[in-house]
Design a protein that fits this description.
12 helices, elongated, single chain, mainly alpha
């Protein structure tokens, strides 16, 4: 497809980033735009697996912790409303209520009820976003849960804990959001560069391997990320 038509279809403000990133080479700009789409597409199975595995492992760990398979519903009157979640901000002197998890669970229950179906643990869990599960690694919730969220890892490296895991999930969420909004992921400092996506692939790979070393080998048939990156990077080099 010609550069002019790509601009007309996808907007100049979006495509011009690729034009500048390829030293104003229209052909390479078009190639890079579609390379970005292909690499984003290749990440979807991995990101989907990451989110499902993270949420399920957290669910299992918290169900054991509370000895309650319906903890996500029943803890609305438990740790989700712990008095320590309400405090006075030292700077603003204003009252703060850290009720994000509680609100998200209630919101999910309302959505389910509005659909005319019974509220179940499985349905409430399925409604939650990656941001919801990420919040279990924030300082206050993590402490309330006695560090349980880090017990989902079989092979967590020495020196890694809540802070590091929280930061990694935030980075993966950022990648996922960029992909979902069709933003450039093959750029570093506004230049064509595939090192970011290579590094993020490594980050996701390591994270899942820490949970269970068998996860990544099980995804061999659908994991094409590095192959697609190699192919598209070679096109830019030519």
């Amino acid at each position: 497809m010609k550069y002019k038509k790509v601009v007309r279809l996808y907007s100049n403000s979006r495509v011009s980033k690729y034009y500048r990133a390829t030293n104003r080479n229209k052909n390479k700009a078009v190639m890079l735009y579609f390379a970005n789409l292909k690499i984003a597409q290749a990440f979807h199975p991995l990101l989907s697996s990451f989110e499902v595995i993270l949420r399920n492992q957290l669910h299992y760990a918290l169900a054991r912790h509370f000895s309650d398979g319906n903890w996500i519903i029943n803890q609305k009157s438990g740790f989700m409303v712990d008095p320590s979640l309400t405090y006075i901000n030292k700077r603003s002197k204003k009252k703060v209520v850290n009720d994000y998890i509680l609100k998200e669970v209630k919101k999910a229950e309302k959505k389910i009820t509005d659909r005319g179906v019974i509220v179940t643990t499985g349905r409430v869990i399925a409604e939650q976003t990656l941001g919801f599960w990420n919040s279990f690694y924030e300082t206050h919730h993590y402490a309330l849960l006695s560090g349980v969220p880090c017990r989902i890892f079989k092979k967590l490296p020495s020196g890694y804990g809540r802070k590091e895991i929280n930061e990694i999930i935030l980075r993966i969420r950022e990648l996922r959001n960029r992909i979902n909004h069709n933003e450039p992921i093959c750029f570093v400092n506004k230049r064509c560069d595939f090192s970011y996506v290579r590094n993020m692939y490594k980050v996701i790979n390591e994270f899942l391997t820490w949970i269970d070393p068998e996860i990544m080998p099980s995804l061999n048939e659908v994991d094409k990320v590095l192959k697609v990156i190699d192919k598209e990077e070679n096109k830019q080099i030519r």
